[in-house]
Design a protein that fits this description.
Strands 1-2 form a two-stranded parallel ribbon. About 40% of the residues lie in helices and about 5% in strands. The protein has a single domain, classed as Orthogonal Bundle (Arc Repressor Mutant, subunit A). The chain contains 4 helices and 2 strands; from the N terminus they run H-E-H-H-E-H. It is globular, with a radius of gyration of 13 Å. The protein is mostly helical and about 100 residues long. The N and C termini lie far apart (about 25 Å). The structure holds a DNA duplex (13 and 13 nucleotides).
Amino acid sequence: MDRLKINELIWQAVASIPKGKVVTYGQIAKLSGYPGLARYVGLTLKNLPSNTTLPWHRVINAKGEISFPQGSPEYKRQKALLKAEGVIFNKAKLPAGIYDWL
DNA sequence: GTTGTGACTACCA
DNA sequence: ATGGTAGCCACAA
């Protein structure tokens, strides 16, 4: 009886990410209880309002990069937010071991 | 009820 | 190493 939409679960999972760490969509999906819905995580975050307090910028793809094309405003925003969190980008990729959240 | 799509992931050449 | 293809589940029209 999952009255709760996957959206709610995603929000919780993303909100549970500690500062200075990042996780992949697959991890979020798995933590949300939907191991195969990595894609939907992104769709959910996309549906989030601009005034959300959710740290969606801590969610990245399995390659350790931002899923947005470089040069895109969202890409820059996420990169800036991560930098403010203490996450350092080696060019466009993130150092491994950062996903060692759980 | 069917079809299409997606801020993904894993596998194969 | 890189690039392309297939699989995956949930939601919207």
